[in-house]
Amino acid sequence: MDDLKKILLAGLGSIAYTYDKSSKFVDELVQRGKLTMEEGKDLSQELKKNFKDSSDKISEKVLPVSREEIYEILEDMKFASQLQVQELKNEISELKEKIKCLEEKQ
Questions:
Q1: What single DSSP character describes residue 50?
Q2: Cα→Cα distances 22→42, 50, 55, Å
Q3: Is the pLDDT of residue 62 over 80?
Q4: Are 50 and 16 in contact (CB under 8 A)?
Q5: Which pick of 16, 55, 74, 77 has the fewest CB atoms within 10 Å?
Q6: Is the Cβ–Cβ distance between 51 and 17 less than 8 Å?
Q7: Nearest CA among 86, 25, 21, 91 for reference residue 13
Q8: DSSP state, 81?
Q9: How far apart, in whole angstroms, are the C-alpha atoms of residue 12 and residue 72?
Q10: Span 27-49, average pLDDT
């Protein structure tokens, strides 16, 4: 769950960084006279709206996932559980022992 939160925060951080850089770029264009003040304000408002929309979409997709839903997703993806992995490790150990015994008999 912590990894999922880190991914979410990284995504939001990337969006915030992009928004910040874009806002500074718009300000520079206005200062250079490449955009009028009104165009700069409109562009800044559009950037702000896109930032909010992107943040909302990420939050909607990631935050509501419960522990049970994560387990279901992992099960659907055919990921092995810790118990299954441990059982396989035990079985491998037993097979190694049997092989070792067979080799010693020869």
A1: H
A2: 13, 11, 16
A3: no
A4: no
A5: 77
A6: no
A7: 21
A8: P
A9: 26
A10: 82
Higher pLDDT, 75 or 101: 101
Query: Which amino acid appears at position 51 of this protein?
Result: F
- Would you state the structure tokens that stand for residue 1, as one six-digit string? 């769950």
Which sequence spans correspond to the domains of the chain? 1-65, 66-106
Closest CA to 15 of 57, 55, 42: 55
Q: Is the pLDDT of residue 8 over 80?
A: no
Report the C-alpha gap between 78 and 84 in whole angstroms.
11
Alpha helices in the chain (DSSP H): 2-32, 37-62, 67-76, 82-105
- Give the chain's length: 106
pLDDT digits (tens, 9 = 90+) for 77-100: 888 888 999 999 999 999 999 999
Q: How far apart are CA 14 and CA 81, in angstroms?
A: 33
